């Protein structure tokens, strides 16, 4: 009996790990978005950012906002990674989180970066956070339902292994594609100037509502317990790539406006 109990323990923890909450693109997703943004920055903006980050790339700092989650000193920023919205709502009509949300976070970062009285230390910190938050904005389940924590409690399988819908969109499809973030960025679609302008157009809130239209499609894309495999990636990985690219282009637009 003791031997059987011993065997069950690792399976218990394995099962638990599949339902852990994740509120971010995976590392490769964030780095790809940041690298795409770097490709759209003006030269003088690149120089200012390089100085502020002491030579670190946007891709390198893009995961910073996740790395600090384990430090309670930064707990005030946790809710800034997502927005809770019912599927029928727009950002204007949804009840706002009193602790703030993605819109709060992005706007606060922009405000501090534009403030001439901000220290370089504050600017560096909020630049790192901004890179991450704009990436998060373009993951459709970051603008998900409160009751399932943005798809984190929607249990599915990925090639026969238990996980959740949020994780599939954060990391699983990207990992299955088996490309580095540089390969993902280098293989982004070739867009015309007109197409880039169309992506850049709009306000932050309009971008939120745009992404939320995708959120609705993601929720309807899988049933609870469904075993998602190659066909799911075939149907939806193109959307993932598009969102990574849109996030990069829009991040570059914000940074070009801040640092010009």
UniProtKB/TrEMBL annotation:
Cross-referenced Pfam families: S1-P1_nuclease
Top-level lineage group: Bacteria
Keywords of this entry: Disulfide bond, Endonuclease, Glycoprotein, Hydrolase, Metal-binding, Nuclease
GO BP, sorted A to Z: DNA catabolic process
UniProt GO MF annotations: endonuclease activity; hydrolase activity, acting on ester bonds; metal ion binding; nucleic acid binding
Protein name as annotated: S1/P1 Nuclease
Organism lineage string: Bacteria, Pseudomonadati, Bacteroidota, Flavobacteriia, Flavobacteriales
């Amino acid at each position: 009996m003791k031997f059987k109990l011993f065997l069950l323990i690792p399976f218990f923890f394995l099962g638990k790990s599949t339902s852990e909450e994740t509120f971010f693109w995976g590392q490769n997703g964030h780095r790809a978005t940041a690298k795409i943004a770097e490709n759209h920055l003006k030269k003088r903006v690149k120089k200012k950012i390089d100085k502020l980050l002491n030579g670190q790339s946007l891709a390198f700092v893009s995961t910073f906002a996740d790395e600090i989650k384990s430090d309670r000193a930064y707990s005030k920023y946790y809710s800034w990674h997502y927005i809770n919205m019912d599927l029928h709502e727009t950002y204007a009509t949804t009840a706002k989180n009193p602790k703030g949300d993605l819109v709060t976070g992005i706007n606060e970062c922009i405000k501090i970066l534009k403030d001439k009285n901000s220290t370089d230390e504050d600017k560096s910190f909020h630049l790192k956070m901004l890179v991450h938050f704009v990436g998060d904005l373009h993951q459709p389940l970051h603008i998900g339902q409160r009751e399932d924590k943005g798809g984190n409690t929607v249990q599915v399988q990925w090639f026969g292994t238990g996980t959740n819908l949020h994780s599939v969109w954060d990391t699983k499809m990207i990992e299955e594609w088996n490309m580095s973030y540089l390969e993902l960025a280098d293989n982004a679609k070739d867009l015309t100037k007109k197409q880039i302008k169309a992506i850049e157009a709009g306000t932050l809130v309009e971008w939120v509502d745009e992404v939320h239209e995708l959120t609705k499609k993601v929720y309807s894309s899988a049933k609870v317990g469904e075993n998602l495999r190659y066909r799911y990636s075939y149907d939806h990985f193109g959307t993932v790539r598009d969102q990574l690219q849109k996030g990069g282009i829009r991040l570059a637009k914000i940074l070009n406006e801040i640092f010009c």
